[in-house]
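Researcher: Please predict.
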Amino acid sequence: MPVKKLEHILVEKLDELKGKGALKGEEVVITGVRPAEDRKGPRYFIEGHGAKEFIRMNSNSYLGMSLRKEIIEAEEEAARKYGAGPGAVRFISGTYQPHIELEKRVAEFHNRKSAMIFSSAYAAVMGAVSPLIDNETIVISDELNHNCIINAIRLSQPKIKEVYRHLDMTDLEGKIKSATGKGRRVLIITDGIFSMRGDCAPLDIIVEIAEKYDPEFEEGIITVVDDSHGVGAFGETGRGTEEYTNTKGIDIIIATLGKALGVNGGYLAANSVIVNYLRQTAPFYIYSNPITPSEASSAMKALEILDSEKGSQLLVNLRELTKRLEKGLVDLGYEIIESEHPIVPIMIRDTKRTSELVQYLAENGILAAGLNYPVVPKGDEEIRCQVSADHTEYDIDYVLGILKKFKETGLKD
């Protein structure tokens, strides 16, 4: 059927997004990877740039797991044994032994009774939140939560939705107090690490507040954390924000296998009752194929490495490189949001200047993400750098050198 009328409307919508500066732009296509050698970490080749090499400072692969020989071998071996894909959803015939073994391993990793894997962490949030919300549920969410949380709440249509100021525990407590008597159940949901800023939720205080007011609600208060940027990259042993804040009592942990662990997919860890319930009610689990058996196998290998001496050294290296970048940026006069997480935001606070710096970095072989309004509020425009354990001191110093040149000889205000 002709779609000319619809095409006209869609073009107008695209023009509207362009006018707001909200278009994502063309996707960068990676055509090859040169492994680390000598003083340099991995280098990437980009379509349209020939043999020019790029350092990725915009990757979520915080431990460099995706390029590790052991991970690749584990995936290849499982692919030969089980095939390239699952061929069905879980409840028909798509459940393979590596899926079950990975779920057991994830549960042990997070000290939970049970776990379930999804095709992505986005799917895990979207699939798990809705079945836990009914028309007597009050949802309370941090204002800077990820898009998946925002959309999951919209899909769920709770009785009341409240948004508390970012990391403001006084405001969170006030929202809970004002909700007393208005619903039977409260669901507090937050990111562990906030992806735009690299700061972390005070999960210990959140649990304390939840336990304080739990008796006020007939069905209690449930705490849910999406720690996709935390797990594997944060905390002494890489167990994320829960470990970093020494928190006990979070009901549901959701995270990804596709960032620090370097593979693909997402998961949820909780008690057995919650997991058994969600296996029967979470649509993104029931009606979507799982990750492949080979991905599950390589994810188990990544967890094995993380819990080994190699993993400990990767985490130490990651923290040292992060501090090296942060100190260098401060010494150069850049404003940053300092934390122990490898997300290092350079606060530019100007849309034009942010775009200029992203372009300047790319011209000098550095890929970094520029975050402009409306992705972030006006005045919070930034360059988001992300450190990886497979970067080297040479790489970090090269990036700092280019940023110094931008200050000295680059585009001026």
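Model: The chain has two domains: 15-56+309-409, 69-306.
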